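Morning run. Coffee first, then this:
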Amino acid sequence: MTVVDRYQHAHVSDVRPARRRRNVRRTGDLVTGLGPTIAGANVIMQLAHPKVGHGVVESRVDSGSAVKHPIKRSRTTGTFLAVALLGDDEDRAFVHDELRRIHDLVYSTEQSPVRYSANDSRLQLWVAVCLTKYFIDQFELLYGPLSDEERERVVADSRWLGTTLNVTGDQWPSSYAELQEYWAAQLESMSIDPPVRELLQRLSDLSFLSYRLGPAGMLAHKVFGRQMNFLINAGLPDEFRHMMRWRWSDRDEHAYERTLDVARVVDPAVGRLVRTLLQTYIYDMRLRRRLGLKVF
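And here it is:
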């Protein structure tokens, strides 16, 4: 079931009362309390590109590993998103140079099943488009489809997700329709190989936390892993769910719709908190730069 399908099956009067439906002026306005769970689904979508997936699995840059350094990875990912969407030109230039330096170290070897370079703008375009859908999906799940005008504004504003990497302005979709066309064309070449699927499964059920946190991480996996895996599975389009070899039943769909009902009630407060946190990543980055501390 797609985001729009879920919305159409809900009671519109319960989902989009005027007092809750924010005016979307830019991509950052789409941030909701649902975002952290949709993020996991979006990572799967990104890594379904074989070159992106193997690049992450084979990366020799341990400092950026979500398995080995989950807290740092969360901070640096948040910093990139915040700077791309809410930062100024100087912030974006700094992050662009830092990420290019790090990505220079991520490239395929003779043993790699596919050839890749993390600085390839074509791969970064896929990642940036996935991130654009991440922001759109989390909002539309709670508040229903964006208007045509809002979608066009979001696509234009989201170009920073690409150009803060190596994506050039002329590579970025010029409209929502063009973004959808790009997405549909790319789906034909998506697949998830066993090593990539294994990593994604560990990230989804929180079992990866045992690497860094030991028994405490294993406890988190046992207590929260099944629910987190359910929420991530819920946020996946069917094509990617099949690639992960996960199932989704009508019973699961009904359970998720109840989860969304609760999320709609608490989002005005929780969503505001998440949006505030996004802004703090920029302040943190600027402070680290002044103090001479590493950001990435």
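DSSP finds 15 helices and no strands in the chain. Good start to the day.
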